[in-house]
């Protein structure tokens, strides 16, 4: 009986992990398609936001980083200057040229 319960418990855990991976991938694909569609409509790019929208967009952009505070600081600084935040959590800077081209004194990217 104990072996049966252990086997059943293991199966339930395995099934939940597989299910979460499958469903997580579906959600990610849907979000990515929405981002591409919005970029095609011109919803991203320099001047596409108002300064009041920067905190919300930067919260979205920085939500998956382990360096949340510096990400938020520089994202909001860049958003106030460029009035745009690229789609997604990482990359896609080509959509917002000002955000992409603003560099530090050492030549590294200023905006996350």
TrEMBL record:
Signal peptide region: 1-20
The UniProt entry's sequence similarity note says:
Belongs to the GASA family.
Source superkingdom: Eukaryota
Mind listing the UniProt keywords for this protein, alphabetically? Answer: Signal
Concerning PANTHER family, the annotation shows: EXTENSIN, PROLINE-RICH PROTEIN, GIBBERELLIN-REGULATED PROTEIN 6
A Pfam family per the record: GASA
Q: Which organism is it from?
A: Rhynchospora tenuis
Protein name, entry field: Gibberellin-regulated protein 6
Q: Cross-referenced InterPro entries, in alphabetical order? A: GASA (IPR003854)
Q: Does the keyword Nucleotidyltransferase apply?
A: no
């Amino acid at each position: 009986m104990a072996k049966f319960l252990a086997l059943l418990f293991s199966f339930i855990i395995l099934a939940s992990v597989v299910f979460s991976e499958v469903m997580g991938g579906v959600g990610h694909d849907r979000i990515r398609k929405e981002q591409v569609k919005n970029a095609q409509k011109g919803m991203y790019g320099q001047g596409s936001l108002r300064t009041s929208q920067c905190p919300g967009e930067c919260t979205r952009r920085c939500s998956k980083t382990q360096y949340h505070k510096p990400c938020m600081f520089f994202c909001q600084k860049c958003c106030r200057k460029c009035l745009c935040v690229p789609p997604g959590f990482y990359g896609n800077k080509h959509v917002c040229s000002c955000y992409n081209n603003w560099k530090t004194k050492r030549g590294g990217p200023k905006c996350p």
